[in-house]
Amino acid sequence: MRYHLEKSLQELKDEIGRLGGMVEESLDKTFLALQTMDEALARDVIIHDDAIDHAESNIEKKCLSLFALQQPLARDLRMIGSTLKMITDLERIADHAADISELILRLAPKPQAIHPDIFRMAEKARNMVGRSIDAFINQDMETARAVCRDDDAVDQLFNELVMHIATQIKSGDRSVEQLIDIMFIVKYLERIGDHATNICEWVVYNETGMHQHLQHPQENLEETQQD
Amino acid sequence: MQKEISKKKIVVKDLNLFYGEFHALKAINMDIYEGEVTALIGPSGCGKSTFLKTLNRMNDLVEHVRVTGSITLDGNEILSDVDVVALRKRVGMVFQKPNPFPMSIYDNVAYGPRIHGIKKKSQLDEIVEKSLRAAALWDEVSDRLSKSALGISGGQQQRLCIARTLATEPEVLLMDEPTSALDPISTSKIEELCETLKKNYTIVIVTHNMQQAGRISDRTAFFLLGELVEYDLTERIFHRPRNEKTERYITGRFG
Ligand SMILES: Nc1ncnc2c1ncn2[C@@H]1O[C@H](COP(=O)(O)OP(=O)(O)OP(=O)(O)O)[C@@H](O)[C@H]1O
Ligand SMILES: [Mg+2]
C-alpha cells in the first residue's frame, strides 16, 4: 500500500544523503584551504556552491510535489515537512563554507598565523554537521540530542575567540582588516554549528511531532512562554 | 482557545451494539462537543455508520439489534424510553446517496415541518427559504421551487437533503459520507456548509476522505473493528497520532 509514496520517501532520503555529502565535501575543502591557504581549493568551493543550491532546489520541488500529489499525513507529513526545512539548513551550511572560502581568498596573499582554536572549532562544527545528517537519515534521536549538546562547546570556543580577536585588535599588532576577516570566519563556524543543531531539532520533531529549540536553554524558555 | 469552553452535546458511555450475535460496537466512550464538527474515520465495516445511527436511534429499524450502555443528549438518556420521532427531529441525518423525495423542491423541504404540524403557507415559505439558504442552495433553485427535486444535479440534491433536514431545526446533524458521490465543486460547497452550519449545530460526519476530515473537522475519531481506537483533535490525529494503528491507517499502510 502507498507503494509510490514509500518509494518516493526512500528516494528523498537518498537525495538528502547526496546533498549532505556535497555539503560535507565543501566543508572539508574549506577547512583544508584554511589550513594551507590554498586559493585554488577555496575557489573550487565557491564554484561548487551552485551545484549544492541546485540539489537543494530539486529536493524542495520533490517535497512540494509529494504534498500536492500524495497528500501525506502523520509520519509522512512530518518527514516531508522536516525535509523541506532541513535542506535549507544544509544549503546555508554550504553558503557559509563558500563565505569562509571567500575570506580565505582575501587572507591568502598575506598569510598570517590562525589561532589553533579556530581549527578546533571547525573540526567540531564539521563533526556536528556529519552527525546531524546521519541522524536525520537514520532518524536517530540519541545522536540528534548529542549533537545539540555539542553545540555548547562550539559556542564556548566562539566566545573565547571573539574575546581573543578583540584583544588583538586593541593591541594593534596585526592588520585590523585581517582580524575582522578572521572574526567573520569564526562567526560562520558558529552559525554552521547552529544549522547542524537545527537539523537535529527536525529529527526530534519527526519522532515527537513537536519542534523545540534544543540549543540554548534561555531561548527554549521564551519559546514556551510564547505558546 | 475556544475548545476549552465547548459544551458536551452528546456523551456516549460504554456503548455496545450487537447485530444478533455480531458485536458491532465495542465499549465506545466518546464525548461529542457542541458547535464542532466531529469526523468518524476507519476502514469499511468498522462500525462508523452503525455508531452514527445509534445517535438518533435509526438502528431501531433493524431487526435483532441489541444496544447496551448509555448515550445522553444534553444530559438526557436517549437509549431508554424516549419519543424517537422527537429525537430524530433534534438529531437529523443526511445519507451517503442524495435521497430526495419524488416531489417538488419546495415540498421536499416543507415535508418535515408539515409532519410536525405547520400548515400556514407563509410560515412554510419562510422555512423553505431559510433552509435552502442555510444549505447554500437558494440562489440555484429559487426560480424553480415547484419543479421536481429529481431534476437537479447530484450535488444540488445532496444540499437539498441537507436543507430538508435543517427545515425541522435539528440541533445535531449526522452525515454519512455526504460527499462520496459528488464532484469536487459540490464537495467543497458541502464542506463550506459544514463550516458555516457548525456555529448553530453540532455535526458528526462519516468520511473516507482523510483530506476532507482534515479540512472540516475539529475532532476525529478512528474506529477499527467496532472499537474506538483513538479520538482527539483532528490536528493532533493527522499530525502525530498517539496510536500506531491510527498512524498506519491514515498513512495508508494498513493491511
Ligand atoms: N443490519 C445489519 N445486520 C447485521 N450486520 C450488520 C448490519 N449492518 C451492519 N452490519 C455489520 O456491522 C459492521 C459495521 O457496519 P457499518 O455499516 O457500521 O460499517 P461502516 O464503518 O459504516 O462501513 P462503510 O465504511 O463500508 O460504510 C459490519 O461488519 C457490517 O457487516
Ligand atoms: Mg458506513
Task: Write up this protein.
The complex is a heterodimer of chains A (227) and B (255). Chain A is mainly α and 227 residues long. Chain A has one domain: Methane Monooxygenase Hydroxylase, Chain G, domain 1 (Up-down Bundle), CATH 1.20.58.220. Helices cover 87% and strands 0% of the residues of chain A. In chain B, strands 6-7-8-3-9-10 form a six-stranded mixed sheet, sandwiched between helices. In chain B, strands 2-1-4-5 form a four-stranded antiparallel sheet, with no helix packed on it. With 255 residues, chain B is an alpha/beta fold. The longest helix of chain B is centred in the middle third of the chain and has 14 residues. At the A-B interface, helix 3 of A face helix 8 and helix 10 of B. The site of magnesium ion (MG) has 4 residues of chain B, from helix 1.
| Number of helical elements of chain A | 7
Main β-sheet description of chain A: none
Secondary-structure element order of chain B, as H and E?
EEEHEEHEHHHHEHEHEEHH
> What distance separates the N and C termini of chain A?
38 Å
Helix-strand category of chain B: alpha/beta
Query: Superfamily at the CATH H level of chain A?
Result: Phosphate transport system protein phou homolog 2, domain 2
Topology:
The complex is a heterodimer of chains A (227) and B (255).
Chain A (H helix, E strand, L loop, with lengths): L2 H34 L2 H32 L3 H34 L8 H23 L2 H31 L4 H33 L8 H10 L1
Helix pairs in contact in A: 1-2, 1-3, 1-4, 2-3, 3-6, 4-5, 4-6, 5-6
Chain B lengths: L7 E12 L2 E12 L3 E5 L6 H7 L10 E9 L2 E2 L6 H7 E4 L10 H11 L5 H14 L3 H4 L12 H13 L5 E5 L7 H14 L4 E5 L3 H7 L2 E6 L2 E7 H6 L4 H7 L5
Parallel strand pairs in B: 3-8, 3-9, 6-7, 7-8
Antiparallel strand pairs in B: 1-2, 1-4, 4-5, 9-10
Bound molecules: adenosine-5'-triphosphate and magnesium ion (MG).
Magnesium ion binds next to helix 1 of chain B.
